[in-house]
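ok so for the tutorial part 2 we go from a plain amino acid sequence to predicted structure tokens. step 1 is just haveing the sequence, like this:
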Amino acid sequence: MTDLIINGDYATADQDSGLQTVEHIPRILQDVTMHLGIKRGKFYPNKDYGTALQGDMRPLAQYALACARQALYDFDGVYVKNAVQNEDTITYYLVINNEERQVSVKYEDLR
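step 2 — the prediction. this is what the tokens look like for a chain of 111 residues:
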């Protein structure tokens, strides 16, 4: 188990128990969401962290799928099946250790 992060900050449980924790699959979903929400090159310790997705790429959903696969290539047991564009978010459909899951990432520069 690991600590739960919500909107970039650690989530607290209550006064006595400290931080909330999550199991394996939710932790992977949390890591995937953080990885896909950062532009590649903007994370100082690792220039390869994040996604190369740009808002002006067309067709956006196909580029988002390709960029997500590139960003997550070293995540063991994670495969990106599809990406669907909404107004300002992209929903990624994943297979994690033979379980289908999805994450939605909000991007500010989608047109």
